[in-house]
Write a structure and sequence with these properties.
The structure is a single chain. This protein is an alpha/beta fold. It has five helices and 15 strands. It has helices spanning 12-33, 41-50, 52-69, 73-94, 203-207, and strands spanning 96-98, 103-104, 109-110, 116-118, 122-123, 128-129, 134-136, 147-148, 153-154, 159-161, 165-166, 171-172, 177-178, 187-189, 194-197. Strands 3-6-9-12-14-15 form a six-stranded mixed beta sheet. A five-stranded parallel beta sheet has the order 1-4-7-10-13. The protein has a four-stranded parallel beta sheet with strand order 2-5-8-11, with no helix packed on it. The radius of gyration is 18 Å and the shape is globular.
Length: 214
């Protein structure tokens, strides 16, 4: 007798969504790490093997899928244990941790590994995260998590905290501390944070100078 997704305690739509997110993640890494965006088979395999950021994103996707999808304990617990081991490997080997409870759209790109902690945030599509970035909660009474829009570029060493909202297309320069709301398409930098430009187009930072999104 064959068991369908419902018989195994799996949400079919969540499974389909997970594969779509993974496909977009892989596309972003291939576009960013290849010269023309169309690598051959062996080059694509090498990108997969050589990119700790992609590996960490895929481990997060697996953990998020298990966290949100499976209801039956006999299935959920073994898969969560597997994710626990993979998550620890990402922390030990690459210094990257993405909370399985985070809700992140497709196309998450982590260019460099090291000191990256992403808590249970809400993040849109096609975001870039640099090394030594921390996204978490604010200490004290405010236990909310950040809501980050689409195509947000987060520079190395930046800290984002609290229940704030960051609009689409925001560019956060390196070593920036963000603790308040930001409107779309602004460029900010520094600690204390300073607004440098409004209506800033970060397509080159997100997609590369030669592959700006139309």
């Amino acid at each position: 007798m064959r068991l369908g997704a419902e018989g195994l305690g799996i949400e079919p739509l969540a499974t389909n969504c997970m594969f779509a997110l993974v496909r977009r993640d892989i596309q972003r890494f291939i576009l960013s790490e290849s010269l023309d965006g169309k690598p051959g088979f062996f080059r694509a395999i090498r990108i997969f093997l050589d990119e700790p950021g992609l590996q960490a994103v895929l481990v997060y996707r697996f953990g998020s899928w298990v966290h949100r999808t499976f209801r039956f304990p006999l299935i959920r617990f073994p898969l969560r244990f597997i994710h626990y081991l993979l998550d620890k490997l990402c922390i030990i080997c690459w210094g990257i941790r993405i909370d399985a409870g985070a809700n992140i759209g497709g196309g998450l790109y982590i260019a460099h590994f090291g000191g990256i902690l992403i808590g249970p945030v809400r993040m849109g599509c096609d975001c870039n995260v640099g090394p030594h970035v921390i996204i978490g909660r604010r200490a004290g009474a405010d236990s909310g998590v950040a809501t980050i829009g689409d195509r947000v570029w987060i520079g190395a060493g930046s800290v984002i905290f609290g229940g704030i909202t960051i609009g689409d297309g925001v560019t956060i320069g390196p070593l920036t501390v963000v603790g308040r709301n930001l409107p779309p398409k602004v460029l900010v930098m520094g600690n204390p944070m300073r607004l440098l430009r409004k209506n800033y187009d970060n397509s080159a930072e997100i997609y590369g100078e030669s592959r700006k999104k139309n």
